[in-house]
């Protein structure tokens, strides 16, 4: 048993190192806590206790800590950024949250809240490539009051905002009805989080880059 545990630990270290652009498990929570402590804005990943399974989260369109292309913001096409994660043994469903702790207000701005993602799904695809929510997945209410992805839109002139893309592996689907907000989802996930991980992208509003198309009408 000790040999097997040691091998699994080495595999986890290698997986995180190989990704080069992800945060996983409890390290993700520690990183998020340190990045938001000064502002006093705890992210969802700091509010739930993980049972410690390994999870690696990444996006094919930005590196961890790197810039998010304009096309995934309100200054571009407003698409939701694609995200993928490593499967977690025993998971019955997954949830994805995108939060901005640099937005004004006492709590992070919730841009996207997706839960009841089937256990066989380990990615949310790029809508520009025909991606859609997996069958059975449900969306909660964003801070903009939308039951949908609320496109990233930091004010022009602000410093770069950090967007935390958090993924939770649950041992049971959260028992929720209607279109819950993040606080309700966090309460429902309590005690059921097998693993949690995140990747962080940054965005500073300005002239659109070649990767995006300006669309001032998008909000």
- Percentage of β-strand residues: 15-25%
Named CATH topology: Phosphatidylethanolamine-binding Protein
Looking at CATH, the homologous superfamily is PEBP-like
- Structural class by sheet pairing and helices: alpha+beta
Number of helices: 4
The biggest beta sheet is recorded as: 5 strands, antiparallel
Looking at the overall shape, the CATH architecture is Alpha-Beta Complex
Explain what this protein looks like in three dimensions.
- 19% of the residues lie in helices and 22% in strands.
- It has helices at 2-19, 25-36, 44-47, 182-189, and strands at 57-58, 83-85, 93-100, 109-118, 123-124, 138-139, 161-170, 193-203.
- The strands form two sheets. A five-stranded antiparallel β-sheet has the order 6-4-3-7-8, with helices on one face. Strands 1-2-5 form a three-stranded antiparallel β-sheet, with no helix packed on it.
- It is globular.
- Mean pLDDT is 81; it is low at 1-22, 25-38 and 209-219.
Compact overview of the structure:
With 219 residues, this protein is α+β, with helices and mostly antiparallel strands.
Give keywords.
single chain; 219 residues; alpha+beta; Phosphatidylethanolamine-binding Protein; 5-stranded antiparallel sheet; 3-stranded antiparallel sheet; 8 strands; globular; disordered N terminus; disordered C terminus
List the helices and strands and how they pair.
Elements lengths: L1 H18 L5 H12 L7 H4 L9 E2 L24 E3 L7 E8 L8 E10 L4 E2 L13 E2 L21 E10 L11 H8 L3 E11 L16
Antiparallel strand pairs: 1-2, 2-5, 3-4, 3-7, 4-6, 7-8
